[in-house]
Amino acid sequence: MKATRSIYACEECGEGSAQWLGRCPACGAFGTMREERKEPARGRAASSKRAPIQMKQVGEEPLRVEVGIAELDRVLGGGGVPGSLVLIGGEPGIGKSTLLLQAAGSLTKHGFRVLMVSGEESASQIASRAKRTGTTSPELYLLCETDLEEVIERARELQPHILVIDSIQTMRFPGVDSSPGAVNQLKECAFRLQELAKEIDAVTFVVGHVTKEGALAGPRLIEHIVDCVLYFEGERFDSLRILRAAKNRFGSVSELGIFEMTDAGLREVEDPSAHFMDRRDRPVAGTSRVVVMEGRRPLVVEVQALVAPSKLPTPKRIASGIDHRRLAIEVAVLERKAKVRLGERDVYVGVSGGLKVAEPALDLGVCMAIASSHRDIALPLDTIFLGEISLTGEIRPVSRTEERLREAARLGFGSFVISSKSKPRNVPTGIRIHREPDISSSLVRFGLG
Ligand code: TYD
Ligand code: MG
């Protein structure tokens, strides 16, 4: 048997193979298989000395370090856990470094020592970002370094409460002879950082860049090594940023943090519903209002539709922010079940605020907005539509109806169209609820039938 055997690993997803393949059998990416040396043996001496402990001696709730940025703390599950590894993924330029710098600034204000390691930027670049966001503190230490062994040494000396590694794709562990960002390097660096986080008991944030398709470049492998995976998302041309948990060993994954990128860094959006609503003075044809659940938070958003004569044999159905297959179904149901003739019409549908919604609860609102644009009749501004539409045209109840009603009522919406099968309890006082069995009856109610 050979001592070391070369294997090939996919740079995208980390799938291993004994021979080279043109296409990765796991993720289907082409030309991503690279030769990797076997990993060097890892010293596990420190951890093997740990003695077993009785379960009853273990506290249930981990200690938390509150960052002081509420939107971030909530997504983390109430703050960072010392000794844990948090991966923050996002496209380049979305604001990961800014978020972590502001987090570092807030933490130092509360007396924590923070070490920020950057493999991408010079100290002066970071300092200029710090100036822009108003982050200065003597307890904030910078280290521009890509050699992970060196980083580990410095962190041991400094003993920070919080360690930030920006980014893992630029780090190189000297014992591994592949380039930074390669599968073996990422794995090794993630393991070393996990050991370090436990050893110095620091909340460790690790930045990971994602590709256009939204996959963490390379390290789907390191997702299982880290304790928490957060994604920072948003559109380049929009200032809105959403922080989402994809995995959290210490909290729920249905939490969401909402920020806005401003000239002075990221600002928390305290009333997201108000932010997502295009406040109108008068009703406009082709718009409807709905409440979506983003994680556990109800958000009021506006659906906008435009129906226009088509010059194409196959008219366009263009969805932005909602699923295009869902839109195809909604258009078909309108055609067949409600006699809204869209066969020679292009249909465009979007959601305000650059949000991406995957909920069927949006169906009724989308159908109403399309019909409203088609007939050029505006829907009342104070009305919220909540319902999933089945292929038969029936309106089905949606989950968490009460929470959605409460959020919209808080913002002053007084009228609701819901499924006739839905029987919400604890309805806010002063609102009117209209129960409709199907899409046709809802259209008739608003003069669109
Ligand atoms: P950055 O945090 O460097 O992104 P990442 O680390 O994810 O690559 O943020 C980059 C973008 O944010 C850049 O295009 C400029 C913008 N920005 C602002 O609009 N305002 C600010 O105060 C800062 C610091 C950045
Ligand atoms: Mg950055």
From TrEMBL:
UniProt keyword Ubl conjugation, yes or no: no
Domain of life of the organism encoding this protein: Bacteria
Record-given protein name: DNA repair protein RadA
Gene3D superfamilies: 3.30.230.10, P-loop containing nucleotide triphosphate hydrolases
UniProt source species: Candidatus Solincola sediminis
GO molecular function: ATP binding; ATP-dependent DNA damage sensor activity; damaged DNA binding; hydrolase activity; zinc ion binding
Family listed: Belongs to the RecA family. RadA subfamily.
Keyword terms: ATP-binding, DNA damage, DNA repair, DNA-binding, Hydrolase, Metal-binding, Nucleotide-binding, Stress response, Zinc, Zinc-finger
InterPro entries according to UniProt: AAA+_ATPase (IPR003593), DNA_repair_RadA (IPR004504), P-loop_NTPase (IPR027417), RecA_ATP-bd (IPR020588), Ribosomal_Su5_D2-typ_SF (IPR020568), Ribsml_uS5_D2-typ_fold_subgr (IPR014721), Rubredoxin_2 (IPR041166)
A GO-annotated cellular component: cytosol
Function: Plays a role in repairing double-strand DNA breaks, probably involving stabilizing or processing branched DNA or blocked replication forks.
Chain residue ranges for the region called Lon-protease-like: 346-449
Binding site for ATP: G90, E91, P92, G93, I94, G95, K96, S97
Motif (RadA KNRFG motif): 247-251
GO biological process: recombinational repair
Pfam families assigned: AAA_25, ChlI, Zn_ribbon_LapB
Lineage of source species: Bacteria, Bacillati, Actinomycetota, Candidatus Geothermincolia, Candidatus Geothermincolales
